[in-house]
Write a structure and sequence with these properties.
The complex is a heterodimer. Chain A is an all-alpha fold. Chain A is 82% helix and 0% strand. Chain A has one domain (36-239): Orthogonal Bundle (MetI-like fold). The chains are: A mainly alpha, B alpha/beta.
Chain lengths: 248, 255
Amino acid sequence: MRWLRPLIIAASLLAVWQAAVWLSQVPPFILPGPTAVLTTLVTRADVLVEHAWVTGAEILMGLALGTLLGMLTALFMAAIPGATRWLMPVLVASQAIPVFAIAPLLVLWLDYGMASKVAMATLIIYFPVTTSFFDGLRRTEPEWLALAQTMGASRAAAIRHVRIPAALPSLASGLRVATAIAPIGAVVGEWVGSEAGLGYLMLHANARMQTDLMFAALFVLTVGSLTLYFSMNAALRRLIPWQPETLR
Amino acid sequence: MTTDVPVAASGAVPGLVVEAAHLSYDGVTLFQNLTLDLRAGEWTGLLGDSGVGKSTLLRIAAGLDAGLGEYAVHLEDGGAADGRVALMAQRDALLPWLSVLDNACLGSRLRGEPAAALREKASALLQQVGLGDYLEAMPATLSGGMRQRVALVRTLIEDRPIVLLDEPFAALDALNRHRMQDLSAEMLAGRTVLHVTHDPLEALRLCHRILMLEGRPARLREEPVPAGSPPRAADHHDVAERHGALLDRLLNPPA
């Protein structure tokens, strides 16, 4: 049932989609049916794969960079007393400015290539990673810290051996959010200005009324994002097995 | 229980004195010129109602909560209390990401010391408290009694002459509490112990001396203890009789 359920959901949605196309008789350039999209998916596979690599690389690099920067910022705030008061406003501002608004700027500064898209993905996940990790770092059980103190742990040792491991479940929540939204950053970047990637392909296809190709690109993007999310979820569960899960 | 591993303190065991000149919390004066002295090698029970300041007194003895007020902690032998005090709390405070053995050796990990010799001793001690099959188990898979035994081993491994117990058995069921009391009395024998507890019976079973903390600002009052050396049997008539008197005192403190 565990494997059957998503298949049933997907099949039902596809059936509704196909039925809607048949019944409404809309022209294919407005709404192609799933069979048409599937055909395009196969015939244009080479193009789709080529662009998917670009977008995938942007997403993964953005995730890695954003996670690294976010974790370092959180650690810095936890290690240096008073740093929070200086950095928090900057952090909140980084989240308050819509990435969509500064996307053209990033393209201007970092050019049409991958760098501006990686920056976009990094920027969009930086805040959730930083705040979730920092929240975890500052909510350590007081008893664990009291114990560490009587055992003669230095501040650095207490952070390394107590605060950081204790904050990992919280960081994991941030990473899950980051994994889900990183593709948005990359694709928005591609829309603003690029020469490759699924976002670029979608715009390109849309402008030429190749709606079936656009749907196929969207499909590849969705499947890729889902795969990424569930891989991340599974990896985090394996890495943090002590965190009890009371919801199934 | 056979004692395969020496559990007695390896160094000298001094007494400990806490002099709380003034300590207030949220504007309420908890202690004013209060002196708590723990006799060397003896088990001192600290009884009192909730909120009277028992845990605060224990925490300042442990060197925690610095800056809460004016107080001094010193050892009878003139040395500093730093690094000579071990803490065992009500909640076992096992780190959920470390195995039983790694939890028992937490101190060396935190101080960055080599752990090989310590791990051997910890394994032997865990064996001794009946956890030999659980060295690699994670804390979440253990029962409350087992977890508290790991915490006891962790305390012993630290080998500190002074041990502070903050209601360490309060979360256990009656049977396991009784077992843990006996085990702790045996294994911590010879050290200077401060045992904060709500339970008069527990104090009567385990302590050489019993102090009652009462009033605001709080005063310490020494209570008589039953004859014989701890751990005393719970059904000893002297223990049962004192139990009634102590409960009565706790329920009806002097105005």
